[in-house]
Amino acid sequence: MIETHTPAPPGAPPARTGPARLPVRPGTGRFLVLVCVFVCAACGLVYELELVAFASYLTGDSVTQASVVLSVMVFAMGIGSLGAKRLRRHAAAGFGAVESALALVGGCSAMALYAVFAWTGGWGGMWAGGPRCLLVALSLIIGLLIGAEIPLLMELTQRIRRQDAGGAVADLFAADYVGALVGGLAFPFLLLPYLGQLTGALLTGTVNVVAGGALVLGLFRRDLTRRARWTLLLAGLLVLGILATAAALSGDFERAARRAVYGTDVRAAVRTGVQEIVLTGGTGGTGGRPLGLYLDGRLRAGGRDEPRYHQALVHPALAGPHARVLVLGGGDGLAAREVLRRSGVHRVDVVELDPGLVDLARRDPGLSAANGHALADPRVHVTTADALTWLREAQGPAYDVVIADLPGPGVTAGTKLYSQEFYGLVRRVLAADGRLAVHAGPVTGRPRAFWTVAATLRAAGFATSPYRVPGDGSGPAAGPDRTSGAPHDWGFLLAAPGRTPPALRPGPGHPPSPALAALASDAEAAERTRVGGLRASTLLRPRY
Question: Which domains are seen in the chain, by residue range?
């Protein structure tokens, strides 16, 4: 039932629990409140997704990061809803204060996380270090503020026009969920690709504080004391000033943060639709820093260790027939470089997910020199596609060799590329006497993950020969799974269809390399780390 109220007489003090004195009709006022619910919901979801995405980019473990951020936020939202009960008598002022705080914290959250990551040396252990603590703290604070929004907005709508609780809740939640849909779609398709995380978060905060301030100072201004109006106005302007200043300085901030993370010689930094790519060094000057290729903060290839990694990955697989070679991943062209060093190679197919990486590998002087301009060789054919999807649709002659130059089983986004189903598809495109080389992560650092890859290959019908190649200790070890402080070694599995493990030898015509000369001892070193009783990893039951 809808109740009517007599407006308060002119000159009366602001009514804090009675009907609101609006400058517009009640129907229009209620519509404006629902519009504000819509906008605030969109902003709130952008904050959540921004925290999840940022943490996932820097750690690679998207499942854990999403679980932590969302569970902490949902818990905090419940606490925030309870806390908002104390603000009901001052719903308009309380909502204005909440939106200003939320815009400031949410808008600056990406910049704060990146700053702590850049200047404290990374994420450290599983839950050690400032960035992880800050991630949880931001999730908690943002959740508390988001949780306080709905109860306060409910109070404001009821003060505009009293209606049954069920109808009011339905209207508010409908606007809230539609706003969340828009925010959820805007983040990956608009904010992230066109503005980036820092500017996107700052713009979201700006929209948030403007929407909240306009509702309170425009629609409910007569419910506020003069002091409250000025306080909220100054607070909103201060937040807008901070966000605008941060946006103006975001370019300089990003450059300074990148120098703190990657060193002073960053030559290129590109955010593609897949990842952030950073190139350092590699200019060829006397005493200059060697080339460094970083993908989402991880050293993918660089230093004097890079040839050791790619030679160890590629050449043992080329000991047999190798006229047709398939490289899964390897958009940097470094694995293709090693394949082309062997005579008898007629065709190399490279399947890479990120076209931005392929473009850099072709046109960047340092990276193209490092890969020997392999992607310009007429024998090399590059396809931009997801490796699993490409394998499902692959047709044509079988390959003699498949090189899986992939991110590593420790990165959640790449778990499907280390599954039994994936290796089953690889076996389908591999010749009966063909060989598969798999980078399976560091042996000493993650032996359980390494041997799970071996168990998964066996479940897919492969026999395996494990080996481990140490870095030379001249700098941070390169490779798809390298992070600061990781052990300086790489683990590989050479696999062949059937029950007979392939012979572990580099084959004739391989380049001189300490890594290849010591394959036998490296195999023994890997064998000493064996973990038994492990089950295969599948798409439905990943075990990494």
Answer: 26-254 (1.20.1250), 304-527 (3.40.50.150)
